[in-house]
Structures are given as structure tokens and as C-alpha cells.
Amino acid sequence: MEPHENTGHPRRWAILGVLVISLLVVVLDNTILNVALRTLADPVHGLGASQGELEWAINSYTLVFAGLLFTFGVLGDRFGRKRFLMVGLALFGLASLLSAYAQDPGQLIATRALMGVGGAAIMPVTLSIISNVFDPRERAKAIGVWAGAVGLAVAIGPVLGGALLEHYWWGSVFLINVPVVVLGVVLVAALVPESRDPRPGRVDLLGVLLSVVGLVALTYGIIDGGEHGFDRARVWVAILGGLAVLGWFVSHELRSDHPSLDVRLFRVPRFAAPVALVGLVFFAAMGVMFFGAFYLQLVRGYSPLESGLLFLPFAAAQLIFAPRSAAMVRRYGGRAVAAVGLLLTAAALGAFVFIDADTPIWIFSALGFVQGAGMANIMPPATESIMSALPREKAGVGSAVSNTVRQVAGALGVAVLGSVLSAVYRNDVASTLSGLPAPVRDAAQESISGAYAVAGRLGAGAPRLIAAANDSFVSAMHWAAGISALVALLGMGIVLRWMPGRPVVETESRPAAEPELAGTA
Q1: Do the Cβ atoms of 83 and 194 come closer than 8 Å?
Q2: What are the distances in angstroms from CA 419 to CA 95, 142, 224, 358?
Q3: What does the pLDDT look like over 334-354, one tens digit per residue?
Q4: How far out from the chain centre does Cα 490 lie?
């Protein structure tokens, strides 16, 4: 095959647009939900959800999503990526409709879990289809656009969510997914070609089962520990049991003659290093975004719409820089681009240590822009390195591994940094609550949301309680931000030691000489 011949699908850029719409609906939902948390906690205008129920409204999705991502990536490669995308979109739309009309927090948690099933079918196949329909020489640019779409969803989500909450009931933040899903299904049916692994072999049933059980147990332990503390036997049974099952999975995959994941890939630096990097970055970033929403709406008193607008710089930076990262990687190499991105991300996260209740709000948004710019130059080169380590027909596996690590690390970040936040908050606020009635004291000590909820019953004592809760929350936020910055800096050693530099990127056209794989597009 001539080196100048493009092996991509003729409609590849239109297909990318359809995949972006499919991706938007998954990311949009989570960013919308963040600004709706306070409304959902309101017993009059929401569901009266407790802090724990709010966390599970987020985490039930994450638990199912993380547990099924790898399995659905493998099955999508085998049975058809377009089919999985359409089924996933339809299921996500149905679950969104059910979420909008949930009658209590328990129903919302259940329907969010169903959304996780749909999301797990959507997310890995979007990257798989990109790898399948694009020539390897254009793939990095396409993945940059894909990553920029995440930034667009982050931008749209909080603003759209805030606008909906100001004019409609809380269920509208879920109902908005339905027309997007309908549009996505129609466009996928019309434009996206079916593709699958042409030589799938036998299904590794034991491997698939072990991956689901191990990931669900591990993620559950992390989430439950973050919510109720890591000092309980049940948490460690789940975490250590999940790790043991995943260890069994690795052992089985090494012995199997038809593995669902060739774990020997983790010996390849350009696969293993970016996977670890993605995990560290999302651990650090997700924890900070979780407390950022509470800081803006409670400590600073902004409405959901205003909070969404203040997150726009983070999203704008993603939208601006992610599509340009491929050109930066070609010029300077993946290692240099990812290292600069990590430094920017760690600096922004560390700077949150100096944010307090009176800091000019533009500084919060400026730090968000710097963090967004940093992450926009980490994710595309890392994702491209992961995807380029695999042939096109195994794209679903690479995508699923990347997304699974991202989701589990994000859940771990929210759980661990959330538990740090809760522990420091409870410790700091306790001394100011000694003279209050027991029910008020317990609610105020549980979380800053609880403190605001009971402050209205205290009359003259309310300002003192709110001031104490704000001070304690900001102090706790500083600890969480400092830890997240250190975690981000850990990635620097991985980048400098193992991430590929410019020579690997320049030889990326190598897999184009596989005509039968291109023909599956």
C-alpha cells in the first residue's frame, strides 16, 4: 500500500460528529448532575436526599459503568460496535426518562445505575469506531476532537443544568438527555458503519465474569469507604476481594489461549504508562471538581446557573487546546506535551490550597482554565498512545481499558479525597457545635449541606453556624487540593521515564498496511 494512501472511511469526519453527539449525552449528564446536587437535597423542591444518597446518585452510575466498561468493549468488538452504540443510547435515554420522574432518592439511585449500563455500552465503542474509521495518521487529530467534545460537554452541562433548574423542576436535567439520544440514534443508524473484530475467536467467559466481579467489588469498596470511612471490615473485604479477583483475572488471562485482554500489553511502555497517567490525573481532578460545586453554591452563595458559568473556563480550555494537542505532539513529542500538561494541572490543583471564602471569584475560574489547559494536553496524547499500541480490530479493548481506569480512578478520587474532606470538616467544625441540640449538631457535623439545612432553625445562632461551617469546609478543601496536586505530580515520573517521545508519534502510519482491517470499517 502506498504511504500516501488514506485508509480511512470516506465519511469519517461526519461519523466523528455523530460519535461526539453520542459522547455528549454521557458526559453532559454527569456535569449537569453536579449543579443539581443542592436542589436534590432540598425536601421541598427536590427529593430531600441526604449527603450519602447524593453520593450514591453519582456513584451508582459510576459503579455499574466501571464494572461493565471492559466487558462491553470486548463484546462490542465481537458482536458489532454500531449495534452496541445504538442499544447503549436507547437504554441511556430510557433510564434518563425514568430518572426524571423518580419519586424518591432510592428510585433515582436505581435509574442512575441503569444509565450506567447504557453509558458503558456507549463510551468504549466511540473510541473503537474512531480507531476503525480513521487512518492512523489522522487518528491523533480525531482523538483530540473526541477529547475536546468532553470539554464541550463539561462546558454545556453546568450552564444548561443551572438554566433548567432556574426555570423548571429538577427532573428536567435528566429529561434533556432524551431528545439528544433520539438524534444520536437516528444519526448512528444513518451514518456509522458496522465494524467488528474479523477474527474474534471464542468468548473468554471466565475472564469477562472475573473482570465484572473484580471491578464492581473494588469500586464498591472505594465508594463505600469514601462515604462511611475506611475503618470498617466490609470496606476492606470489598477492596481486597476485588483486587484478589482482578489478580485471578490477570492469572487466567496469562494462561488463556483466547484472552479477552492480553495482559502482556502492560509490559509495553506506550500502553502501560499512559494508562497509569490517565488514572492519576482523573483521581486528582474528579475529587477537586466534586468539592468545587459545593464551594461555589454554599460557601460563595452562587446559583446553579452562576456556578455553571464559573466552570466555563475549565471547559473552554479543554475545547480550545484538546483538538490542537495532536499538532503539539507531532512537533514536540508526547512526553514533552504530557509533562507540560501535568505541570499545569498540578499547579492549578495546588493553587486551590490558597482559595478561601473571600478570594476574588475570577481567580477560581482562572485556575480552572489552567487546569483545563493542562488536562487537554495530557488526555489526547495518552489516549492516542494507548490506542496505537493495539491493532484496529482490538480497538474496543484499548478503549475499554482506558475508560475503565479513568472511571475507577475518578471514583477513587471522589471517595478518598471526599473522605479527607469529610474528616477534616467534621474535626474542625465539632468545637463550634457543642452548645447545639443533638439532632442539629449531628446534621451540621455530617456535611456543609447539613449545616446550611439546619441553620434556618437556629434564628440568631444561624450566622455563627454558617461561618463555622464555611471555615471548616474551606480548610478541608485545602487538604484535598494539596493531596490532589501531589497525586498529579506522581505522574511526572511516569511521563519522563516511559511515555513515548516524538519518534514513536512520527512512525504512527505503520499499521496502515493492514488492508483487511481497514475494510471492516
Answers
A1: yes
A2: 29, 37, 10, 25
A3: 888 889 999 999 999 999 999
A4: 19
Q: Which of 181, 129, 161 is nearest to 31 (CA)?
A: 161
Report the alpha-carbon distance of residue 64 to residue 56 in Å, rounded.
12
Q: How far apart are the two ends of the chain, measured CA to CA in Å?
A: 17
Beta-carbon contacts of residue 70 (< 8 Å; ≥ 6 apart): 124, 211, 212, 215, 260, 261, 397, 400, 401, 404
Q: How far is CA 417 from CA 10, 104, 261, 283, 342, in A?
A: 46, 27, 31, 9, 19
CA distance 457 to 444: 12
> DSSP letters along 156-192, please?
HHHHHHHHHHHHS-TTHHHHTHHHHHHHHHHHHHHHP
Tell me what percent of the residues of the chain surpass a pLDDT of 90. 14
Residue 318: partners with Cβ closer than 8 Å, 6 or more residues away: 147, 148, 150, 151, 152, 154, 155, 372, 375, 376
Supply the pLDDT for residue 245: 93
Q: What is the DSSP string of 446-505?
A: H-HHHHHHHHTTSGGGHHHHHHHHHHHHHHHHHHHHHHHHHHHHHHHHHHHHHS--HHHH
Q: Is the pLDDT of residue 8 over 90?
A: no
Q: Got the DSSP string for 58-120?
A: HHHHHHHHHHHHHHHHHHHHHH-HHHHHHHHHHHHHHHHHHHHT-SSHHHHHHHHHHHHHHHH
Give me the pLDDT at residue 241, please: 94
Question: How long, in residues, is the chain?
Answer: 521
User: How far is residue 32's CA from residue 29's CA, in Å, rounded to a whole number?
Assistant: 5
Task: Give the separation between CA 254 and CA 71, rounded to whole angstroms.
Answer: 17
Locate 409 and state its grid cell.
480512578
> In which element (H, E) is residue 391 found?
none
Residue in 304, 321, 323 with CA at minimum distance from that of residue 313: 321
Compute the 3-state secondary structure of the chain and give helix, strand, coil in percent, each to the nearest 5: 80, 0, 20
Q: Which of 346, 399, 403 is nearest to 27 (CA)?
A: 403
pLDDT, tens digit, 9 for 90 and up, residues 122-148: 887 887 888 778 877 777 788 778 777
How far lies 199's CA from each of 125, 217, 286, 394, 511, in Å? Answer: 18, 32, 38, 10, 17
- Give CA 311 to chain center in angstroms: 16
Enter the C-alpha cell of residue 361: 471569584
Cα torsion through 386, 387, 392, 396, rounded to 10: 90
Q: Please tell me the distance from the alpha carbon of residue 339 to that of residue 290, in angstroms, as a whole number.
A: 25
Query: How far is the C-alpha of 233 from the C-alpha of 245, rounded, in Å?
Result: 18
The contacts of residue 460 (CB under 8 Å, 6+ apart) are: none
Is the pTM value of this prediction over 0.90?
A: no
What's the DSSP call for residue 301? -
Q: Comparing C-alpha atoms, which of 404, 433, 70, 473 is closest to residue 261? A: 70
